[in-house]
Amino acid sequence: MARISDNILEKAWEGARVFASRTGVKDLVYVEGSVLGGWNMLPRRKGEVSVLAAELLDAGTKNKNKNVIRETLAARGASLSFSSGDERTYFRGSCLPEDLNQLLSVIVECLGEAAFPVAEVKSAKERIHGELLEEKSDTRVQAAITLSRSIYDENHVNYEETTDERIRDLGKAERTDLVSFKKVLGQGGLVLAIVGDIEPERALSTAVKYFKKLPAGTKEAPEKELNAKKQESKTQLVTITDKSNIDVFIGASVPLTYNDPLYLPFIVATELLGGRGFTSHLMTTLRERDGLTYGVYSRPTGFTGGSDGAFAVWATFSPAKYAHSVAMLRKEIAIFFKSGITKEGLQHRKEEMTGLYAVGLSTTRGLAAALHQIGRRHRELSYIDEYLTLLNALKLEELFAASALIPLDKLSLAAAGTFE
Q1: What's the pLDDT score for residue 15?
Q2: Residues 271-300: pLDDT tens digits?
Q3: Mean pLDDT over residues 125-129, rounded?
C-alpha cells in the first residue's frame, strides 16, 4: 500500500522545516505555516503585544503600505492572513500555482519588515478593544476563561487572563513593544506546508530562497513548567444578563503532554465520551435521550506547544433547567468512565476516526494542516502514516490507563450566563 509520506518532500535547516506535496486539486496552492513567537513567550502583562503584532504584519512594511500589499494579492486572487497563538505566529494563504513566488515573498516581507505605522497601531488597538468588549458578554468564552483559572496555577501557560486584564494590557501596548517582538520572528522556528497544484521540488527551493532572507529569530520555545495547582472540585458562576443559554465547562488538568504514550488513548477516550457527531455517549444521552442540550462535547485542551493540558467537557443549557442539566451531565460523565468504555465502542470510534483522518488528508487544506502539526510537534514525517497504525492498535487497557489520569472526584465547573 502506498504511503502518504512517499508523496511529500521535506527540507530542513537550523530549526526550520518545510513540506511540499502535489495533490489532485487544479489551479490552487494552499500555504500554512508559523514561526515561533506568541503570547506565552512574552511577560504575562505583555501578551497582547503578540496579538496586536499579528494584526498588523500586513498593514505596511518598510517599502510598501498596506494598500499595495493587499491589492497586489487581491489582483491575483490570492489570500493571506496572520494570527497569534500561545507560542507561535501563524500565517495562511492561497494562490494560483504561478503566483506562489509572489505569495511567499509577501509573507516573508511582512514577517521581516513590518513597519507598524502609528496610525495603523492606533486603529488596530481600537478594533481589538471593541472585540474584547463584545467578548465580555460571550458566555462560552467567559466560562472557558474561568475554568482555566480554576484548574491551572497562575504561572502556567494555560492560565488565562480575564477579559478586563486583556483590555488593560492592550491599552498599555506601544509601538516600541511591537518592534521588539518582531525580532523574535524568524526562520529558526519556521514550519511551512505548501500543498496543491505544485512541483514539490521547485516549491521547496522557492521557500528556502525567500525564508532564508528572514533573520534567525527564535529557534526554540522555552520549556514548559508543569501545572503545580492541586486539583479540587470548584464551582464558579459568571453572571451575564439577558442570555437565553448558560455555557458550562467541567474539567480538570491532567499530568499528560502530547508526547506521552497515553496521549492518543486519552484522545480516543474523550472522543467516545463526547466527540464529533451524534454517536458519543453525551450526545446520545443528554441530547438525544433527554433533550437537555443541542451541544455537548468533550476534548483534550491546552496541549498546544507541548504543555500539559486538561480534560474538559463543554455543554450549553437552558437557564430553566440548569441545575438538573448539570446534575445529569455529572452523572453521565461518571457512568461513562465506570462502564462506557467498551470493546465495541472503541472499534466503532477507531473506524470513525480513521475515516475522518483519511478524508481530512484528501483535501489540500487538511493535508497542509496535518503537515504543519507534524512540524510544530517535532515529529518525523513518517508519523502521517504511522498515526493510523497507532490508532488501530489501541487496546481497552490503554484507554483505562489514560482515563485514570482524570481526577473524576475533583472536576471543577465554570458556567456563564443568566441564572434563575
Answers
A1: 87
A2: 999 997 788 999 999 999 999 998 999 989
A3: 97
**In whole angstroms, what is the distance from residue 143 CA to residue 250 CA?**
10
C-alpha cell at 138: 460571550
Give the domain 8-211 fold: Cytochrome Bc1 Complex; Chain A, domain 1 (3.30.830)
Relative to beta strand 412-417, strand 235-239 is parallel
CATH of 235-417, one of 3.20.20.70, 2.60.120.890, 3.30.70.100, 3.30.830.10: 3.30.830.10
- Per the listing, cell 483505562 goes with 400
Cα separation of the two ends of the chain: 59
Same fold, 8-211 and 235-417: yes
Beta-bridge partner residues of 50:
none
Q: Take residue 397 and report the three cell numbers written for it.
A: 487497557
Q: Report the distance separating Cα 99 and Cα 119, nearest Å.
A: 31
In tens, the pLDDT along 225-265 reads 999 999 999 999 999 999 999 999 999 999 999 999 999 99
CB atoms within 10 A of CB 330: 15
Q: What is the pTM of this model?
A: 0.94
CA–CA dist 151, 167 (Å, integer)? 23
CA angle at 38 for the pair 37 and 43, rounded to the nearest 5°:
105
Angle at 87 between CA 50 and CA 125, to 5 degrees: 15
Among residues 152, 148, 146, 159, the alpha carbon closest in space to that of 228 is found at 152
Q: How many residues make up the chain in this entry?
A: 420
Domain borders along the chain are 8-211, 235-417
C-alpha cell at 413: 465547573
